[in-house]
Amino acid sequence: MKVRDGEAITYETTTIALRRGAHFFSALQVSDSYWPVENSGPLYFFPPLDMRLYITGHLDIVFPEEFLKEILRYQYCHQVKNNPSGDFKSMYRHISKGSWTFSDQDHGCQVSDCTTEGLKCCLLFSRMAPKIVGMKMEPERLFDVVNILLSLQSKNGGLAAWEPVGASEWLELLNPTEFFTDIVIEHEYVECTASAIQALVLFKKLYLGHKKKEIDNFITNAAEYIEDMQMPNG
User: Fold this and answer.
1) Number of C-beta neighbours around residue 153 at 10 A
2) Is residue 50 flagged as an active site residue?
3) Which of 113, 144, 216, 228 is catalytic?
4) pLDDT by residue (tens digit) across 146-185?
5) b/e for 67-84, b at 16 or more Cβ within 10 A?
């Protein structure tokens, strides 16, 4: 159900829209809880959908118990469990343990916003009854997520997509394409930074004593980065 310009957003229209979205995701999901090939795109939209459903109190209404457990099982199974093999730092690889990737854990390369959205999902599900979503994730695995998020913050407070920013800006002159910009080196992004703030604020509420000082500094610097990046028109 689409809400047209000027039309009031009611409880009924919101509920219908959420149900349709859930049915869409459910229809595309295969038996092992994954979304294959060209249908893998919906994975990008699941974390914010979960969040909104949780906030509005619809999560355990729109999705049946079995579906919720499959979502959480997917999150658990595809968290990266280990850092790259060997002396990965000498090969200019960053840590990846605790992260989530663009696809599954075999992909191996951490992505900051996928990781923060994965953390938010696991934290929100942990606040629900185990009989609905199954057992919550072990704290140690959540701590691994926090470790990698803290490690990804740049000096200006922002987060890049893949790894900390380190190379010089002039290397972008080597970009061989005319239609892709800022692809040679890492750059910070407002959306990655904002997502990390949301995840760590929620983490602080549930795990008060874990790396409190580091998380507070992270949030403060990240918020300043977002303010600095805001354009005059808002």
Assistant:
1) 23
2) no
3) 113
4) 999 999 999 999 999 888 888 888 888 888 887 788 888 8
5) bbbbbbebbbebbbeebb
